[in-house]
Amino acid sequence: MQDPGSAQHEAAAPGVLSRHDELAARHPFVVWAWGLLHLDFTGIAFGALFFGWSLTPSLLPRDWLFQGLIGGLNAAIGYGVGTAVGWAVYRYFLATKSWWPPAPRILLAAKIGVVVGAVVASVVMLVYSAGWQRELAVLMDAEGTTTSGYIRTGGLSLLVAGAAISLWRVLRDLVRLVARYLNRWLRVPRNAAFPVGVAVVAFLAYTLVTGVLLNGLYSLANSAFSLQNNSTRDGVLRPLDPERSGSPQSLAPWDTLGFEGRNFVARGLTAAQLTAANGAPAEEPIRVYAGLETAPTTDERIDVVVDELERTGAFDRKVLVVIPTTGTGWVNPTAAEAIELVHNGDTALVAAQYSYLPSWISFIADRQKAADAGKALVDKVHERWLTKPPETRPELYVYGESLGTQAGEGAFDSLAEIRETVDGVLWVGPPNANTLWRQLVTRRDPGTPEVAPVYADGLVVRFADSAADISQPLGPWLDPRVLYIQHPSDPVVWWNPDLIFNRPDWLSEPPGYDRLPQMRWFPIVTFWQVSADLANAAGVPDGHGHNYGTSVLDGWIAIAAPDGWTQADTDRVRAVLVATAGTQGPEK
C-alpha cells in the first residue's frame, strides 16, 4: 500500500527547517534526482508480477537482451499499475481506518518482505524462463540458451525499468510545475490547474513524439535506406538477356531499379540451368521490375512495367505472376525460382518498388501506400491482360509475402473480385492487420481454430501451416484457388494491438505444432512479448516464425501445378531450391 510516510518530512519544531527542507533549500536538484529513485512498495509487488509474466514463453526463442528490454518495460508498467492500485486502496479504504498505519516495525517488516519476495520470485522465474527458452529452441531446431547466461536478463530489466519509471516521474513533476505556474500567473484554481497541466504536458509529449521524433526518425530511416537502395549486392551484375528489366534492351534502366530490384532481375536460374534441373528444354524466364527511380510516380512506374511485359513477350507465356512487394521492393527469391522451376521457365514475373523502407517500418508508416501500390500494379496488369486473346493469354496469378500480402489484398474489394480477376492467389505470412485475411478468419467455420481456420469447407480459400498441411485432402477445391500459408509461431501473423487487453482465440485454443503450451495470455505483457518476437521473426530455422523456406513450392503446386505433376517432380524441384537457398539475401 501507499507508504504513509512517503509524503512527510522529518518532524521539526515550529519555525525550524527540517533536515529534508534544509537539504532541499541547499541542493534542490540533488533532492529532486534522489526522489526519482524512491519506490512505492505496492508498485514493487506489481512490477515483480508483470516481470514474472514477461518471462513466460511467447512465440519465438528470445535471448537475454531482448528479454531484458521487454522484462524491464513490463516491470515499469506493472509498477505504475501497482502504485495506482495502492493509491486507490489507501485513498478510499485505509485512510479511514483507525488501525492504519501499523506500527513502524510491522511496516518495515512488510516492506522488507515485499522486496525480498520480489527478488526471490524474479530469480525463480528467470530459472524457469531459461528452461522454457531451451524447450522452444529445441522445438524449432534452434540454438538454446544457458541458465547462467539468461540471469543477465534481471540486471538489464532493472535498468530499463528504472529508466522508464524515472522518465514517468519527470513528466509527473513537469505536470506539477505547469500546474503551479498556471495557479500563480493565470490564477487558475488549484483543482483545475492540475488537469490542465496534464493536458498541456500530454499534448507537448504527443507533439514531440509524433510530430518531431517519429517524423525525424522516419526521415532519417528514409534517407539511410535510400542510400542502400543505390547500392548493389556483391556478385550482382547487369543482365544481358532481353527477358530481364535492366538489360540493354529494357525500358527500365539498370541504375533505376534499386538494390532489391537489381537483385531480383539479375538472379534466378537461366534457361540452361532450368533445362539441366528439369531434364527438358526450358525457356528463358521473364522478370520485369520498376524501381522508385524508374519513374516519378506510381502510375508512371506501373506503365513502365506493363510496357516491359509487352516488350518481353510476357503475355505469350504460360504463367504471369504479379508480385506486390514488401517495403524495400524485396521479392522472395525462393518463391520466384519455385514457380520458374515448376513451369520450366515458361513464366513472367512482374514487381514494382513503392518504398525505400524495410517491411517493419513500412508496416507502421506506409501501409496505405503498400495497398495503393499493390492495387495499381494488379489493376494495370490485369487491364492489359484482358486485351489479349483468351485462348493464348497466360494464366494470371498474384503472389505476396509479409507486407506484400497486404499490398496484394489492397487490389481486391472481396473474395468474389479475386475469383473474377485472377487464376489463383498465394499469400505467405500475412500480417494480422490484413483486411481480407481478418474477415475470412473471423468468419471461419464453427469449431475450427483461429490458428488453422477452415473457411466455407475450403471450397475456395484455404489456410495451411506447412508443406504437409497444404497437401492434406480437405475435399473439393474450386478454381481459382486462394491459399494462405501461416505458421502458428509467426508473430507477423499474430501481432495485434488488441493483445493489450483482449485474449485472442489462438491463445485460448490448443497450440499449433511449433508453439509451447506454456504460453499464456497476460494483459499488456503478451502484447510486448509478441512485439519483441517481431524483431526476430525471420531469424529462426525454416518452417517456423516468419521463415517459410520451401513451403512456397508446395503452395505453387497447390494453385498452379502443370498437368501431370508428380511427387517426384516436387522432390526434384525442392532439392534445387535447397541447393540455391541463402545465396540471394534475406527479406528486407
From TrEMBL:
Residues 286-573 form the Alpha/beta-hydrolase catalytic domain. It holds the Pfam family Abhydrolase_9_N. Residues 55-268 form the Alpha/beta-hydrolase N-terminal domain. Keywords: Hydrolase, Membrane, Transmembrane, Transmembrane helix. GO terms for molecular function: hydrolase activity. The chain crosses the membrane at residues 29-53, 73-94, 106-130, 150-171, 192-218. This is Alpha/beta hydrolase.
